[in-house]
Amino acid sequence: xxxxxxxxxxxxxxxxxxxxxxxxxxxxxxxxxxxxxxxxxxxxxxxxxxxxxxxxxxxxxxxxxxxxxxxxxxxxxxxxxxxxxxxxxxxxxxxxxxxxxxxxxxxxxxxxxxxxxxxxxxxxxxxxxxxxxxxxxxxxxxxxxxxxxxxxxxxxxxxxx
Length: 161
Known about the structure:
Layout: H1 18-23, H2 41-46, E1 49-54, E2 57-63, H3 76-95, E3 99-110, E4 118-128, E5 132-140, E6 146-158
Antiparallel strand pairs: 1-2, 2-4, 3-6, 4-5, 5-6
């Protein structure tokens, strides 16, 4: 599958969120589509950093520390937010600036506790249509053990002029 954003010419460092986007691993080809809000404040708060950014495979990491629940393990809501972030960015890549993704369904199964270090998430497409996308997101701990599995469906709304 092609990469609709990272193959575009590099953008100027005058972007209002250049430092933020760079520190979260977002390729410069995607920056023009993030000029209003950057990666969003939740991505910053959770410490999500993208490591692979393509239509057919989108990956990121997130620290367990700072994203825990009362028992000191990774919060299920943080895992869900990581999954939704990847699925939404992947849908945006597929939309190639012509459609905006809007999440319509997210489900997540938690398999084991994330206890320390970083969790890694790999997002792959299950369906890439004209009006909707569905992605699977697998979240693993540093030992490669599956922490959670999620599926997200996004509706693609046409960009209004």
